Amino acid sequence: MTDEPLQIIARGPRAPAEAASVALDGDPGLEGVTYSIIEEDEDKGVFRIDAYPNTTIESDRFRDHLARFPELQVTVEKLGDADWLAMALSGLPPVRAGRFFVFGMHDRGRTPVNTVNLRIEAGAAFGTGHHGSTVGCLAAFDYMLRGNRFDRVLDVGAGTGVLAIAAARTGSSVTLGTDIDPVSVRIARENAKVNHTNSRFFTASGLGHPVIEAGAPYDLVFANILARPLVWLSHDIYSALKPGGVAILSGLLRSQARQVLAAYVSKGFKLERRLGRDAWATLILRRR
Known about the structure:
It is a single chain. The protein is of the alpha/beta class and 288 residues long. The protein folds into 2 domains: 6-83, Alpha-Beta Plaits; 124-287, Vaccinia Virus protein VP39 (Rossmann fold, 3-Layer(aba) Sandwich), CATH 3.40.50. Helix content is 33%, strand content 32%. It has 10 helices and 14 strands.
């Protein structure tokens, strides 16, 4: 662990901030680092990255990535013994994606009346709703709900569980999720209770859990992970879906969409729609 908790802050224009975010997301050595990217000053076009490394190695690695973008002004602050992660997350604004409104405990009581309101507490899990890939999945799901019903839903790489919980809140009777990180699974289960859903989450790599296998075939599978694991899981996701079932994929850069799409088309999927959010792509695919 680091000698003292640290907060790394980077401020600058949108393009280098988003490019830095892409580099950070693509580094497997930083998977355990909690960080956020938000637009701090809309009038001036200033974006801000806040990161909370757990170790000196993570801190050094994070700063090495940021150093590649000289347009970003980077500062490092020492944090006290307060619950700094909760304090940082409390500053995140709510997010609207189609009919879905994702908010934290600090925004309770200020939710719209005409939306599906999802209270998501992230802790150390991915998926507050602020990341372009999460927003993309919610927007894609909102689009697919027009005239469609998905009774059985699986969320692979569930993080906070926001996608499975969104499905449960819009009528899906079976909503299951997996994550390789036990902490994320615990947080997802807590979020399911907060949102009064019966969503269930399990620690597993991909779809490799007996309950997940027994629950197939699914009407819809979410997979908001990374491009390479998405390619690896293309056969498993195909097998888990019923004929005509839908896969919503994200966690991939726009530049990686063609590679991922090719892998799924070769397995028997067809592209229904492609969405973009910042540097991220979301694919809606249907099993033939």
